[in-house]
């Protein structure tokens, strides 16, 4: 992140940031986190299975590789939107979405910083019967605290959270995150 110096307009070198994320194995680099703006580069979301419900609109740009953006319609149906390399997507606030892309792919995400008290929700659905399996809710005041990893740990580290009340199916934990 940069310091707020109004005499400088910061420039992010996306290729260098992607190379650094790949070399270090890190998944996210926050570029800007301002009162009305949050922008970050994400590497690989192959492990994601939850649907994120963001209180703000999101814009996703695929720097490298292709994303399979899983969304849930207002009727509850799951659909997949393919975002190709160089493609740009607008995801409105409140739309359950799950960005999935391989570890050698990179996305630039821009959204509004959360307002005080706003909640992000993370929902998992049963892979067997599609019932709501588990939900995590966070007030995200600092994105560098990595709320997605915390939500994943709360879900995958608990077999009761991964067990469907409707059909008894247990969602397996991924090999790595």
TrEMBL record:
Show the InterPro entries listed in the entry. 3hydroanth_dOase, RmlC-like_jellyroll, RmlC_Cupin_sf
Q: Which SUPFAM superfamilies match?
A: RmlC-like cupins
Q: Name the cofactor(s) required for activity, per the record.
A: Fe(2+)
**Entry keyword Iron:** yes
Q: What does this protein do?
A: Catalyzes the oxidative ring opening of 3-hydroxyanthranilate to 2-amino-3-carboxymuconate semialdehyde, which spontaneously cyclizes to quinolinate.
What UniProt keywords are attached to this protein's entry? Dioxygenase, Iron, Metal-binding, Oxidoreductase, Pyridine nucleotide biosynthesis
Q: Which Pfam families match?
A: 3-HAO (PF06052)
Going by the entry's taxonomy, the superkingdom of the source organism is recorded as: Bacteria
Descriptive protein name: 3-hydroxybutyryl-CoA dehydratase
Protein's UniProt keywords contain Iron: yes
């Amino acid at each position: 992140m940069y310091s707020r110096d109004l005499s400088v307009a910061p420039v992010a070198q996306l290729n260098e940031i992607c190379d650094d994320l790949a070399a270090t194995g890190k998944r996210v680099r926050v570029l800007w986190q301002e009162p009305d703006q949050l922008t970050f580069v994400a590497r690989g979301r192959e492990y994601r299975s939850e649907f994120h419900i963001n209180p703000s609109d999101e814009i996703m740009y695929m720097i490298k590789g292709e994303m399979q953006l899983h969304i849930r319609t207002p009727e509850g149906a799951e659909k997949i939107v393919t975002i190709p390399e160089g493609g740009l997507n607008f995801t409105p606030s409140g739309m359950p979405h799950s960005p999935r892309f391989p570890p050698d792919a990179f996305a630039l995400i821009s959204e509004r910083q959360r307002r005080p008290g706003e909640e992000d929700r993370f929902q998992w659905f049963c892979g067997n019967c599609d019932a709501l399996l588990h939900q995590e809710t966070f007030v995200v005041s600092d994105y560098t605290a990595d709320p997605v990893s915390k939500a994943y740990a709360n879900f995958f580290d608990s077999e009761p959270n991964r067990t469907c009340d409707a059909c008894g199916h247990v969602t397996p934990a991924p090999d790595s995150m």
